[in-house]
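Quick note —
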Amino acid sequence: MTTIRQDDFVTSIADAFQYISYYHPQDYIQALGAAYEREESPAARDAIAQILTNSRMCAEGRRPICQDTGIALVFLKVGMNVQWDSTLSVQEMVDEGVRRAYGNPDNVLRASVLRDPAGARQNTRDNTPAVVHYEIVPGDDVEVICAAKGGGSEAKSKLAMLNPSDSIVDWVLKTVPTMGAGWCPPGILGIGIGGTPEKAALLAKESIMAPVDIQDLIARGPSNRVEELRLELYEKVNALGIGAQGLGGLTTVLDVKILDYPTHAANLPVAMIPNCAATRHVHFHLDGSGPAALAPPKLEDWPDVTWQANTEVATRVDLDTLTPEQVASWKPGQTLLLNGKMLTGRDAAHKRIADMLARGEELPVDFTNRVIYYVGPVDPVRDEAVGPAGPTTATRMDKFTETMLSQTGLIAMVGKAERGPEAIAAIRAHGSAYLMAVGGAAYLVSKAIRSAKVVGFEDLGMEAIYEFEVADMPVTVAVDAQGESVHQTGPREWQARIGKIPVVTA
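Predicted structure written out below.
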């Protein structure tokens, strides 16, 4: 009979969530490094270089890989011979570990969890409660997987109840392009097949906790139908040409994971959940001998890739003197280095601004000829101006874009991934532009931020309006003033170059 002590379990959970906040799994980093070497698209290669550089910086500085430090997810396999020496429930112990991890003063993590999700949506301030999945299994120990899942990738999760005769491959190839780039490819696709709808979703989520091993599978060949399906989807999803950050390229997925389960004769449930460029999970066992010992990876195991701004190619932009005429001159795919003062704002701030404008109220800041950055930064520690501050998914602000451009004087926006038709139409109508920063490079981006102060909606916490002063912050013109989107042209070009899947034109 094994006894797991409360303090050992809580400490292990806290250590694990700190660990995964700044250490990528080595299998993911090695796979991404190999993708970098293979990549032929300059834009995708540059994005991967930023992600790899960011990863090493985070490992060295022990700061979060992404500003979205995720919702805490824990898988537990509890041996039937285990007993607990605890005054708390298992859920309460997990939550206490998460609370300690996210409030660690040496590496503060962003609290993103909201209670009353269909109502007040109030931040719990400590990222609890965690989502915990339990399984009781034979044995004398507890197997633990801790993962931090970002909202951008979670938002792209898909579930379908297919007919038994339907093609899973066809569904995946039809569905992946609809996910856009908000899940920050290149990453991993987890697919759950069978059971019931909720079982399929759980299988998909659990599958992405496994090591990246698709290249080993390619080398040895498949031994069952699931492995055949993994290989087929890996090749065909990459042939879509979506590429890193949706800019077009050879690698969209580093691996495809599949778990299946018996299902009803009338059903074929299929769930697909992506893991993003901020893939974060760690596995350990507790056997009653003390808390888990998590060995840090070796920095020499990171690929020898260091991204630097190419000042000979990129155009420096002075945000403090920026004019609509300058914005209108930017070209799709052009690399800019932003300098000067920009404002920030994301979902809650945009909703409040729209409501204030509708009531005729004065806004707390003047957006005239300003640029807004869609971001919710991590709190700073030590001498930082701001913590990791990568972009959030821009499409969530699409419904506010016309209002912002027509009523506030805003002239450009910075975010992650593509814009939808509604936002592109507004950008074209107002001669504005949308600039893309690389998702998964939050710590790297934060190094370009020289100062940060809250200038509006302080009560919104990480969703407040900040004013950042930046120096050579790298962005790409993703939608120009004429409405041309590189997230449309790039994947279309690379799908045609790869040539394995016919290109569908509108």
